[in-house]
Structures are given as C-alpha cells and as structure tokens.
Amino acid sequence: MIDKRVASVAEALAGIRDGSTVLLGGFGDVGTPLALLEGLIEQGARDLTLVCNAGGRDGSAIARLLTLGRVHKMICSFIRPASEAGRLHVEGKLDVEIVPQGTLAERIRAAGAGITGFYTPTAADTVIAEGRETRHIGDKLCLLELPMPGDVALIDAWQGDRWGNLTYRESQRNFNPIMAMAAPLTIAEVRHIVELGEIDPGHVHTSGIFVRRLVHVPA
Amino acid sequence: MPEWKPLDRNGMAARAAADIPEGWLVNLGIGIPTEVANFIPTDREVIFHAENGVIGVGPAPPADRVNPYLINAGVQHVTLRTGGSFVHQADSFAIARGGHLDLCILGAFEVSERGDIANWARAANEPVKQIGGAMDLAVGAKRLWAIMEHTTKDGAPRLVRRCSYPLTAKGMVRRVYTNLAVMDVTPRGFVVRDMITGLSFDDLVARTDAPLLRD
C-alpha cells in the first residue's frame, strides 16, 4: 500500500542534509509551510541554500533561520533592506542571488520539466544580465537562464491523501505546484488529510507522484 | 502662488483608470498603481491579475470577511470577483511574459524619452535589490504605463532623457501618468496628451528634463 503520510513534522523532515538546496513555497505567509519551516529550525541542517520568493520579514521563520546562521545563500526575487536578510547581506554574512520573480518561477518549472535552459527577454537589458550569455531572438535581446532544482521542496497545501495528491486554496497555490515537481524529496504540510479518492481526480492540483511525504498540520 | 493643484495619489489613479476599457486584463504594480482598481466602475468589467496567481482580483474585504488564503502581490487581503480563477506562479508569469496582459501599470522612479523605466533601485550599486516581478511584467505586457510624481520631493525631474537609476526594462513604457500630466512615449519622444487645469505647457517643460512635444 502506498502511504506517504508521516506522523510528525520531525519525521517529515528526517534526512535533510547540511548543504542542501531547499525550495520553499509561499508568497508572504500564504502558501508558506510554516510548521515545516519551524521544524527545519529544530532539525538542524546547516549551510543551506534557500530558494523562495522573498527574503522574509523580521520576526518570520525565514528570518529566524537566517539569524541562526543556517543559511549560506538565498535565491529570491527581492529582499527588504530593513530585514534580517538585508542586514546579513550588507554585513557579508549571507550570499544573495536576486532573480526576477517570473524567471525564478520558470527556472523552477524548467527543473521539474526537464528543460535544460531557456531564453527570456526579462532582465536582458539590465544589470542582472551583466557578464552573462545573451542573444537576439527575433527583435528581442534575451538572457539565458538555467533550471533551478532543489534537493528538497517544502510545500504547503490544503488537502492531501495517502498517495500525496494535493489541492490548494485560493492564492495558497503560488510556488507550491512547481516546487513540488523540482526536487527529489518533496514534503508537504496539509491542513486536511482526506481518504484516497475523496478529491475529485479532475480537481487534483498536484499529483501525488510529485510528493514523497505529507504531514497533517491543522489550521 | 500657482493657480493649479497637482493631483494627489487618488487623482492620479483615477486619471489612469479613466483610460482602461472594459474587457482588458490588467496587472497593477504595488503602490499608486494598485489604487487604480478603486476607480473602475463596478459595471465596467476589467479583469485584474495579481502576480501571485490571482485572475479577477476584487476589492478589499470588510474586516470580518477576510479570507487568509487570498492576497494580492502586495500581500494585502483581497476578494475574488465572480468568474475569477487561480494559477500557479509559473503560469502567472506566463500570463505576464507571454503577452496575455492588455496592460501593466507600474510605479517608477524615472522614465526616459525612449520608454526606459527604472523602478527598483535608487542607486546604481544598490546592495539590497528589490526587483520582485517588475522586470517580467515590464517586458511582457501588450502595453506598459507608468504612474509617478512628475518630480522628486526635491523638484528633480523624473521624466528624463536617460535614466540614471538601474533599469527595470528598456524601451517598454508607452504612457506616463504624473500628478501634472499624461504623456505618451513616441518615436519622437514624450508627447503631452493631457495636463491638469491651470498648468501651462511652459510650467510642465520647466519640470521635465526630457523634451516635450505638444499633442
């Protein structure tokens, strides 16, 4: 019997190694797997590369992970100057790679889809492209972008069944479906565990084939 | 004393809203652009896209009707219009980059006479970058409008020959709404389409770095 449910957050996060690249879903707090992120602080993995939309506000779980010195690099679309990520970066204690948000999403999607690179007009005329490979395609200057796979993806969903099929609520979806596909170890926290078959097959947002473990975290 | 009064934030948003026809799919950037939606009459069906994957963004909910799972790109609680839908982040930016947006409106620090836009950094070597989705939105929409004050707080022009701040995108801005005027970016440079009441063309030229052409 396939059963991807685990009993605790600690069990869900078992085996995440030092030096891992962690894809972290969410936009603001919506769709961010907050229990898994708290669990990662407990779990203890260090020297992490964190891929997520933004650098986190002060007081957030992302900021606490940074304060503990557990992240050596963030790859995200923006960081706030007045935040832990901003301060650590200015002090030279945190590497930051800023990627335009749509490019970040597409690099993650490409990783899950087996696309080994793509050209995009986004940022091709900006400082982001300095020293990098560009070419004209048609009348557009385009920038070569490479996939962004993770070792682990931590995602947040609404419902999940024992096969790992997931649904999302409203804008909770954001980065979660594409991150689920872009790492060999995808771990989901879900508000509700439902029986296999209870989710209408046509309404499954992320197929269970992309999910390795899921843990129930009620609202 | 001048006999004219610059538009405030609401005035600028309302002026831009007046030019958005029914049926358009529109992305509104953070800041004044977000306010534009407040000035579209409810019987004019305009579909607002938020980069976090919301199609059909509606107004803010009353405090007792907040859905914690439903936010816009500025992380503000919103509602969904009947007919709205949700997509994931890669599809949301496929909408932006793929030319599916009729319009994107962004705030800006500077716009050049060639349509270059600078809106994410106030210094060339900004150590902390706040790019977000602006670069993707700027290159992909069918048309890009900018909304900004005509000058800085110190009176320095923001409509310039060349941007001094790092670019968000090159040559993409089609129209600029300021607290003083509406200008199109054309192959000949900025063409003034509208000015606030009482302001003279010479007043506007005096507050603008780039050459201005009369409509």
Explain how this protein is built.
The complex is a heterodimer of chains A (219) and B (215). Chain A is of the alpha/beta class and 219 residues long. Chain A has a single domain (5-10, 18-99, 148-216), classed as Glutaconate Coenzyme A-transferase (3-Layer(aba) Sandwich). Chain A has six helices and twelve strands. In chain A, strands 1, 2, 3, 4, 5, 9, 10, 11 and 12 form a nine-stranded mixed β-sheet that branches. In chain A, helix 3 links the parallel strand 3 and strand 4. The radius of gyration of chain A is 18 Å and the shape is globular. The mean pLDDT of chain A is 97. By secondary structure, chain B is an alpha/beta fold. Chain B has a single domain (9-214), classed as Glutaconate Coenzyme A-transferase (3-Layer(aba) Sandwich). Chain B has five helices and 13 strands. In chain B, strands 4-3-2-1-5-8-10-11-12-13 form a ten-stranded mixed β-sheet. Chain B has a three-stranded mixed β-sheet with strand order 7-6-9, with no helix packed on it. In chain B, strand 12, helix 5 (201-206) and strand 13 (212-214) form a beta-alpha-beta unit. In chain B, helix 3 (89-97) crosses helix 4. The two termini of chain B are 27 Å apart. The model of chain B has no long low-confidence stretch (mean pLDDT 95). The interface between A and B is large, with 45 and 41 residues.
The CATH class of chain A turns out to be Alpha Beta
Q: What is the CATH homologous superfamily assignment of chain A? A: Glutaconate Coenzyme A-transferase
Uncertain residue ranges of chain A: none
Number of domains of chain A: 1
Q: For the record, what is the CATH homologous superfamily label of chain B? A: Glutaconate Coenzyme A-transferase
Distance between the termini of chain B: 27 Å
